[in-house]
Amino acid sequence: MANFSKSGVPRFAAEVYQNAYLPEGGREVNAIVTVTATGGGTSGGLPLFAAGTDPAGAGAGAGTGTGAARGHGGAPHAAVVIMVDCSGSMDYPPTKMRNARDATAAAIDTVRDGVAFAVVAGTHQAAEVYPGGGRLATAGPTTRAQAKEALRKLSAGGGTAIGTWLRLADRLLADADVAVRHGILLTDGRNEHESPQELRATLDACAGRFTCDARGVGTDWEVKEVTGIASALLGTADIVADPAGLAADFTRVMETAMGKEVADVTLRLWTPQGAQVAFVKQVAPAVEDLTGRRTESGPRTGDYPTGSWGDESRDYHVCVRVRAAEVGQEMLAARISLVLPAPDGGTRTLAQGLVRAIWTDDMSASTSINPHVAHYTGQAELAQVIQQGLDARKSGDADAATAKLGRAVQLASASGNEDTAKLLAKVVDVVDAATGTVRLKAKVTEADEMTLETRSTKTVRVKK
Question: Is pTM, for the whole model, over 0.70?
Answer without folding.
Answer: yes
